[in-house]
Every structure is written in structure tokens, then in C-alpha cells.
Amino acid sequence: MAASKRVLSILIALTAAALSVNENLAQHGPGIAWRRIRSSHFSVIHPVGIEGDAAAVTELLERLHPLLNRTVGAAEHVTPLLLFTRYAESNGFAGLMPRRMVFYNAPPQDGTAGSGDWYTLLAIHEYRHMLQFLSMKVHLGRALYLLLGEQGLAMAAFGTVPAWYFEGDAVLSETVFTASGRGRMPEFDAALRAQLLTGRRFNYYQSLYGSYREYNPLESPYLMGYFLTTKLRRVHGGDVLARINRRAMWAPLLPYRHTHCVDALTGKHSSDWYDLVLDELAVLWARQVSGLRLTGAVPIEGSDRRDWIDSIGPQGGREGSVILYRRGAEESPRIVSIDAVTGEETLIAKTGRLSAPPSTAEGKTVWSEIVPHQRWTRVSYSDIYIADLEDGGVRRITRGGRYYAPSLSPDMRLVAAAEYDEWNRAALVILDAVNGETLARVGSKDGSIRTPRWSRRGDRIVFCKVKGDREGGIGIFSCNASGGDMKTHIPYGIEHLRNPFMDDRHVFYSSPCTGIDTICALDLSDSTRYLVTSRMFGAYYPSVSPDGRWLFYSDMTDQGLMAMKAKLDPGTWRPIREMPSRVVQYFEQILEQEYRVSLDDIPHSAKNSERYCPGLHLLEVHSWSPGFDPIARDISVMIQSNDLLETTAITAGYIYNWNERTHAGIASVAYAGLYPVIELEGLYGGRASTRKNSYGGTESYQWREGEAGLKASIPLDFSRRNWIRRLTLSSKISYDFVRGMDYHDADENGNGEFIPMHYRIVFQNTYGWARDINPVWGQRCTVGYMHTPFKGDYRGRLLYAETTLYFPGIVSHHSLFFQCSFEWQGVTSYHFPSQVLYPRGYSYEFHEMFLCGRVNYTMPLLYPDLNLYIYYIKRIYMNCYGDYGASVRGERVFARSAGGELVFEGMPLGYDVALSVGLRYAYRFDSTGNPHYFAFIFSVGL
Prior knowledge:
Number of strands: 49
Low-confidence stretches: 1-23
């Protein structure tokens, strides 16, 4: 509406950029009373009810600080730590913008925690990350921090240092400072061992950037980084990584800066060290399995795999069938049944990613899944589902629970599960399998429960329990069907015991007791432990067939975990005490570089806990962004704040236009602590221009522009399993004005006020898997209306809608999708910006009513995994399309085109940033000039 919209457009764009982070505000919901413990290096914020845990974590971190920082060398600091207890997933992170650590309290059921205490492993891993970040605040890394705040430090760190350093160094730390870190677990590198010892090997850049063509375990920065950081420290000392990173910070953000610094300090590039590590591991692991006597096994499923598949937790079902959980490079997580005679597979249910395999008894199978809260993104649940194998029906029998690794009793009447609530209380619970009602709860005062299983007869429940102290320890216990008569079968120890199963005479479990994960059995009569299987790379998830004749388990191969069965013959088992050790401790030399302490020696002294009022800490400035635009001739400074509890985002800025010599200000506030997200934004600034006067000279004139806006939105998440289902409802009102203008051209607006409103509904329901370019199935729909219902100097209205429908293509990873859009603008004194896509190959033109339809077919062409130094190409794909656009009111105008897009997907110049670049061709059927149109296209993702 303004006489010239240039500065106003810049301000609106800056506002949109500043507010884009508000969509990612992660909220915890109302009703939480927060408290805080302060110490020399930490500020621990926690909900009321876990004061004891918070004090213990504070003391632990203070003791860890000098140990973890000794080989990093970060400056002294105070780090905020937030203990969240309403999130059902096992995780944690250390981050910047704002700088903080976050721990989620639910301990994992799978092997990531080993035999250790969950908070201890989180403290070591995540605090090592924080020290890594802070250690890079040196040289030009510090200059970037002073210039841009924490976002400058993040740019220096993540734009220079590869992910394998951050994660590998943290895994090495948890391995050195505890008896249960991932570097001590054969399961951690089992897939890599299987591939190396069968002749499959990938180069450094395939591991660094990943591949769509084949599964590569070293794509995980945790695994690749653990071996690389360990090797570098073994050869060049404990502080070599810190020295490399400090050197890199002399010129951060330069292409391949980190690997050049590795070369300068060690004499070899990162890729050379990578090859040396794999060569060394191949020799170590070949020596490990030399002379190994393998036990026989029969594959339950077909062994002619073309891609990576994990078949997890095979169990006997009805009439000899086998039920298992499967996930793979080409298959999303699912539960399948395999016919014992024909080998035919039947899908039981598609699931989310499970932390423990499902449990089967006769005609039913049960499992637990993570369910997000529909509104609060830091709240989720772990609820139990049960499937009927006869009719295929699936029921959710609990709601709003925190249940893990459920097990179905043989009579299908009861479910036993591990529970971990938001007050950090662990329990074994027994539920009604029909309605989910809790029938019994056995609290665990000294540790957490893992993977409970009903015995084959259904008279007892066997489970692992992790000792509740800092050093940890895991044992195997059992109780009767009502939770009483507790027995200890294997006392607490550091041996990584997993997934126990009990029959009449034995407890079977998975253990790395020889150095390779294997299935073991404890004789219940005399407590003798036996080695039941001896496999090349590892055996996991034991269970016994309903008739007691077969042992089912998952066997590691070079193409993933494969379901196997073996005859149960105790006469062939060998006592574990007689077995030679085949342990490989790649980290052993690093122990000499670190000061090892007993974490249980740390005193549990009381810590003063004070009330923490989130409302008094909404302003947490972490970044500032000076910049300048030579085209618009603007100099700007933007300041950004996000509170630690992730409810409030504040942005404020100043812009000076040196051409016009005018000033402008911008500010925005988003608050997500209420059910609707409330956003306020405002901008105000002076403007100036020139005109020809009546004497032929030039004179200047000035005016003021401003906008104030209020937006309310409700983002809802109904996602389940691998379906993303989101609905966002929003409404915005703004007040715009131009004042003090005494001159304007005929085609420009002068002084006036303008009060538009905007209503918008966005719905997404899509499903896809790792290698799919587009969703396989799904819908996206946007509907909006903009108008000016209040009194003002300008009137306008705009109705728009756009829908995309996704369908599978002819073969895997091909995609057929249709898009249809509609836009109608009333003929008024103001035209809103168009909200829909115009046909490709044409420039936008205003039409009162416009329809557009598009059809696209996307197909991958090649997976080259080719490093050209300036660009690493992971995938090349093509999109063929046809667009049809037409105005349907007034003069009929067409905009029709057809063509294709060739896209190269990869990583540029050694940066961990996904960059897709390509070329678009369009044949424009309705062009009055040259019908051929070419354009360069690109997209960036992190």
C-alpha cells in the first residue's frame, strides 16, 4: 500500500525470517512447577518432584567437569541443564541458540545404555558435546561469536568440524569413563564387523555423506567417529583432537578445513586415517574369530537379500508360524508373520520404530509405540497396542501411559511391561490385556526395569534390572505372575545382559561374555551358565518355541539381522567359564590418557533447590546478526532471544538505509506456553525519495511506514508410526499505515491505513521411507482467506487453496503427484500477494480468478556416490511435469507448459549441508516469444 514497498518488503522478510524459528518452539504444557539448583558450573532446572535426582546429577556433572575438560580445554562457564520428564523417548541433547543441555528421563530398553545408569551416560555424552562447542570459541571462532553470538559459534563449529568428531569423541568419553559405554559393546560395531569380514567396504566420503545405494554402518557418525577419534588419540595423544580443532578455528568455514588441519598436524588426511582404521579393524576382527567353532542354525526367512534388513525378535506363533519385527533400508518398521512350511510372509501391522521387539502368544501380538501429544511437542507417551493375528485388527489398550517392552502372557489375558513415570519411578506393571487396566505394580526403588517377558508356562516374569547408582550394573531377576516371590538369577554386574527368556529349566539371554554377542543359558537348578550359540558376528533376542524344541534368535549378517532357529540340545552347550576370551578393546590405550575414577565415590550431599519462575527468564539473548545489503543499501542489526524452556522467542532489530539516510526498527515476540501460539510483530521506519520539481530540479521528500500484527495459531500433531499428520489453524490481523507523505506518483498509494486479516488452514498427511524422494502416499492441503473487514483507506480480498496428492510410481522410489491450486482476488483498491504457485516457465501475472493444475512424475536415475571435491553427488533424479494454468473470469488467458527437471542431490565443498542443484526446462505453449525456457533450480537442507 505504500508509495514504495522496498523497505517495507525488507522489513516483512526480516520479520518472517525471525518468526520462522517460532514454529519450532518446543513446549511442555502447563501445570509444571519448576525449580533450580545452582553450582559452580551448572544451573540445573527441573520439575518439582525429582529434587533428589537433580541434586545427584548436579554433583555428578561437577565431578565430571575437570575429567571431561582436561583433553578439550574449554574456558570456564556455567551451563544450563534442563531435566524433562514428560517426554517418553530416551534421548538428550546439547545445543546452542540458546546454549543448554536437555536430558529426557526415560531410560532406553535397547542396548544404547549398556549396563549403565541412564543419567550418568547422558551427563558424560552431552556435557562432552557442550565442552566441544565451547572449546571452539578461539581465534576466528571467537570472532564469529563476538560478531554473531551463539549462531556465529554454531556456524564455526558445525560448518568446519565434521559430525564424526562430535559424536565419536562423545562415545569415546562414555566408553572411557564408565564400564558400559558403546565402545565396550560388541553390538555397537557388529554390523561393521559383518561387512568388513565378508569383503564389503565403503570409502571415506560414502561414510561421511551417506549413500542411497547400499546400507553402510559407518554412515553413523557415532560409529565412524568412535574409531577415528580413538585411532587419532592412540597415535598422537589425548589432546590431538583439541589441537586440530583449535587450528581449524584460525580459518573456520573454509572448504575441507578440518581434514586439512588433520593432515597438517598428523601427516595424513582424514580419509587416510579412515583407511588405516578399517585395515586395522579387519585384522583385529579376523584374529578375533580365528578358530571360532560355529554352532549350526536354520534360516527362518529367505537368505537371498538384496538390501539391508533387520529381522528382530523371532517368536513362535500359531501352527508353527514365526512372528518378528522387521525394518530395513527398503522396508519401514512392521510386524510380520512367516509360515513355517511355505515361508510365505504376512503383514500383521506397520509400526513406528520400536525399542523392543513385540511379544506373541498364540493368536495375538503386543508392542508399545511412542505417541506424540497433539499440541505439546515436549510431551509424548508410550502406549501399548495389541493385534489379533486372525482378523488383523489392532487396538490401543492404554492411553497416556509410559509403558515399555510389553509382554503377553501365554493365555493372552495379561500384559507385563516396564513403566517409567515422570517422577523417575520405575516399576514392573501387570495389565489386563483387554482394557489395559493396571492389576499389579511392583516398584523398583534401586533401578530401572528392562524387557520383561513371561515364562513359557506363564507362571513367572523374567526381566533385566539396572542398578540405580552412578556406576550402574545389570542383573536378571524374576517374579511370579502377581509380582511377588522375587528371585535373583544373575546378580548385578557390568556384563551387558539383554532380553531374557525363561522356560522350565533355563533362563536364556544375550551376552557379550566372550567378546562376541551370543545366546547364553542359565541353568536354574545349579546356576551354571552355558554358551548356547556361537555365531560369527553376534546373536540376539532369544526365545523358545511353544513346543520347547527350538531356540529362535536374530543372527547378525552382512545384510542385517536374520531370523534363525536352532535345535535345543543342552548336551551340546559348553560352560561359559571354559570359553576363551575374544574381547577386543579398541579404546584400551585411551584409558592411560584419562584419569579413571569411581563415579560412586562422589558424595550425595544435599543441594539447595530454589523456585524457578519461567516468566522472569523469558529474555535470553543468545545471538545478534549485523549485516548489510549492498543492493538495498541497508545496514542492519538483529538480536534474537529464546528462553531455556522453549516457550518464548523474541527478535528485535534496527535497519539504517545509507542511501535514503533513514532508520527503521523491527520487533517480534512469539509465546507458545498457551494452547494457541501467540505472535506479536511490529515495524516502524522512515522513508525518503526524490522527485523533479517544477523548475526541473531534484528535491527530496520523506514519510513514515509502519505495521503492527497479531497472530494466533494452533499447531496440532496427530502423527502415528511413519505417517506425518499435522494440522495448523491460524489467524492474523495487522495494522499498516503510511503517514507524512506529501507527494506520490499516480500508480502508487499515498497516506492511508490498512487493516487486513488472514485466516489459514494447513493440513498434511504423508507417508514415506528413507530412500523416497517424495512421500509414497499422502495429501497436503492449504486453504486461506485474506480480506479487509474494518474501516480503512484500502480494500482487498483474496481466497486461495492448494492441494497436493501423492501416489506410488511404477517402481520403488518413483513418485506420481498431482497439484491443484485456485486463487480469487476481488477487483478492489489493494491486491494481496499471490499465495499459490504459477505454472513453471511463466512470470506471475495478476488475474481476478486463476486455476492451475500440475502433474509430476519423479524418478531416481543414478546413485553415483561420486566425490568431485567441489560437490559430492549422492543421487541424480528427474521430474517430468505438465502445468496447466488459466484465468476463468474476464478475458481467458492460458499459461500452459511441459518439461522436466534434472536434479543432482549431494553435499558441496565438504560441508554437511544437503544441496540439490539442477536445471529446469519448460516448453511454454502460450508464450508470445521464445517457447523454450531454461532455469537453474536449487534447494538447501540441513
